[in-house]
Amino acid sequence: MTHLSVNLNKIGLLRNSRGRNYPNMVEMAKRTLDLGAFGITIHPRPDQRHATYQDAYDLKELLKHYPDAELNIEGFPDEQFLSVVLEVVPHQCTLVPDDPNQLTSDHGWNVARDQDALRPIIAKLKEKGIRVVLFMDPDADNMALAKEVGADRVELYTEEYASHYGKNGFDTIAERYQESAQAALDAGLGVNAGHDLDLTNVEDLCRAGRITEVSIGHALTVEALDLGWDQVVKAYLSKLV
Ligand SMILES: CC(=O)[C@@H](O)[C@H](O)COP(=O)(O)O
Ligand SMILES: NCC(=O)COP(=O)(O)O
Questions:
Q1: 8 A C-beta contact, residue 144 and residue 187
Q2: Which residue's CA is the nearest one to ligand 1's atom 11?
Q3: Whole-angstrom Cα distance, residue 155 to residue 189?
Q4: 129 φψ region: left (φ > 0), alpha (ψ -120 to 50), beta (else)
Q5: How far is 198 from 195, CA to CA, in rounded Å?
Q6: For ligand 1, what atom is nearest to the CA of residue 74?
Q7: Which family would the database say this protein is a member of (predicted)?
Q8: Which residues pair with 40 in a beta bridge?
Q9: Which pLDDT value is given to residue 101?
Q10: Residue nearest to atom 5 of ligand 1 (CA)
Q11: Could you tell which of 43, 71, 220 is best to mutate to test the pocket of ligand 1, judged by most ligand atoms within 8 Å of the CB?
Q12: What was the pLDDT predicted at 98?
């Protein structure tokens, strides 16, 4: 079965918008793991508008009580990100080629171009026992090089899969994702996937059995609002008699 790592960035975004600890990310992580999710993902960015670097330390503390669960920290490997990751030592670190002011992640690594920068970073993370994942576009030809620079896994960037799901041309795109996953497996890499996955599209992606882990945050948060909204509005109305 594919593992689910729940990305709590949007919990961080909501919390940060009011300047106090509500919603509480550690509490939400605990609820998530108690429900059976395999892991928690955060993607701190330099402006810390979503998850903060402190969240990485707090979540690592919580995960000590869940020996079978994993913490995955995603982000661009700048100096600050790396120093936090090397100190926190999550189970997994997913390197993403984000610009500092990026709205959200929108492309994978160009490993051929960036390999000289990536090799020592990957080596340093692996020395600490951290599993290293490279965020990649679904291009089968680039998977072997990801292995060659030292990655343990790739994470397939699934925005294109999600935005075309069920539309014209989707089958060709889905095939490209499966071919890329197979190429990664053939190269000796594990395969994660993420970005814009949701309750409607995730099952088909994972059905072929090539994906070890999906990380899902944005849609999961919106779906939680959708599924809970009516109940909560009704609960308020019942208080205001
Ligand atoms: C790498 C990736 O796709 C995710 O980490 C995503 O960028 C995080 O979600 P937000 O952009 O919604 O914070
Ligand atoms: N790695 C992808 C991730 O953590 C969550 O992406 P999204 O579901 O918020 O688009």
A1: yes
A2: 104
A3: 10
A4: left
A5: 9
A6: 5
A7: Belongs to the PNP synthase family.
A8: 6, 71
A9: 87
A10: 43
A11: 43
A12: 96
Q: Which amino acid is at 221?
A: T
Query: Encoding tokens for residue 228?
Result: 């809970």
Which ligand gives the minimal distance to the CA of 11? 1
Does the pTM surpass 0.90? The reply is yes
Radius of gyration, CA atoms only, the chain: 18
Contact 181, 156 (CB under 8 A): yes
pLDDT of residue 124: 98
* Rounded CA separation 23/27 (Å): 8
Q: Which two tokens stand for residue 188?
A: 């000796």
Amino acid, single-letter form, for residue 132: V
Collapsed DSSP state (helix, strand, coil) of residue 124:
helix
Residue 9 CA: nearest ligand 1 atom is: 13
Query: How far, in Å, CA of 87 to CA of 61, rounded?
Result: 12
Q: What is the pLDDT of residues 125-166, one digit of tens each?
A: 999 999 999 999 999 999 999 999 999 999 999 999 999 999
What are the two backbone dihedrals, phi and then psi, of residue 105, each rounded to the nearest 5 degrees? Answer: -65, 135
Please count the CA atoms within 13 angstroms of the CA of 211 that sit on its side-chain side.
27
Of 179, 100, 108, the C-alpha closest to 146 is: 108
The tokens of 14 are what?
A: 């909501």
- C-beta separation of 134 from 95 below 8 A: yes
Query: Token pair for residue 12?
Result: 């961080």
Calpha distance 174→49 (Å, rounded)? 33
Residue ranges of domains in the chain, CATH in brackets: 3-239 (3.20.20.70)
φ and ψ at 130, to 5 degrees? -90, 130
